[in-house]
Amino acid sequence: MGEPGRAIALSQLGQWGGLDRVVRLSYLTKDARGAVVPASGIVRLPDGPRPRDGWPVVSWAHGTSGLGESCGLADSDDLIRSTAPVVEALTDAGYAVVATDYIGLGPDSLGPHAYLHTRSEATAVIDIVKAARTVVIGLSDTWAAAGSSQGGHAALAAGHYADRYAPELDFRGTAALAPASNFEDVIWLMRPGIPALPRAMSGPLAAILAGMSANQQDVDVASYLSDFGKRAVDEVGRSCGPNWESILDGKRPDALLSKPLGDDAFRDALRDYMTVPVAEQGGPILIVHGLRDITVPIPMTLRLLREFREAGTDYELETINTDHTDLRADGGMDDVLDFLDRVIPAG
């Protein structure tokens, strides 16, 4: 099939989210099991003449969109609407933008997507940079990773693997807005009948369990699920995020389970699956978080920052008095652009 980072196909998308000059790129990367598989994403270049050394590249990692093949950047209207302003802001600032669908979220890619799987998110984010440079004229070898929510998790994962996985590239840093982190420490406390867990956690839990079920062999995920949980996890594994609420039918997370998730085997598998690497980051880190975020509550990120400090990893933190949904529009994207201008200036 070829090596990870090889481009398979490049095609024009025409108008995409109100933007022109957007192309779709299919490429090879490594999945959660280490196999070489196809993935896809988009590329957009700035307008105007390219710099002498090429446009610096930002690999953007999007937030949660689902697990099925129609949940990516070519087919999900919700994801296109939320991502197009980011792509426009970055290209207007002089950056070439590549943005992966992640593995499993495009028609050419096998699913279900390994939702919040650290290593395969990282390879998808890095390999689209490698692939784009082989087929798109004018890209520099300097690049940075950036993302929001699930994409913040992916960007931090990419920052950890960047120098070892793609030493031929010049990695400059990571910007993560409200990055998902430390949810594994909540998940392995879950058990049937646990009180007061919010219904909003049911979808992400089902998505993580669906990703684990399809993409790792350390534990038999189905053995932890109720009959309802088995049906819901299977359906979530084939669906986009807007459909999760109806699939879960108002049930709380414990309704998915037939036994506790806290045994050693499950804890080890979950930690290996989704923990954010806090050591050996390849460049400067910016974390931006909303003080009123209830999707990724800020205590989760404060714990991540403590783990960075314990690992000797430097970071910058910006907080904004906003929620998860409005973080980028309420100043988060400006913080990202300011950070990028310092670590990977566009001109």
From TrEMBL:
InterPro entries listed in its UniProt record: AB_hydrolase_fold (IPR029058), Lipase_secreted (IPR005152)
GO annotation terms (biological process): lipid catabolic process
GO MF annotations, alphabetized: triacylglycerol lipase activity
Superkingdom as given in the UniProt entry: Bacteria
The protein, known as: Lipase
Originating species: Gordonia mangrovi
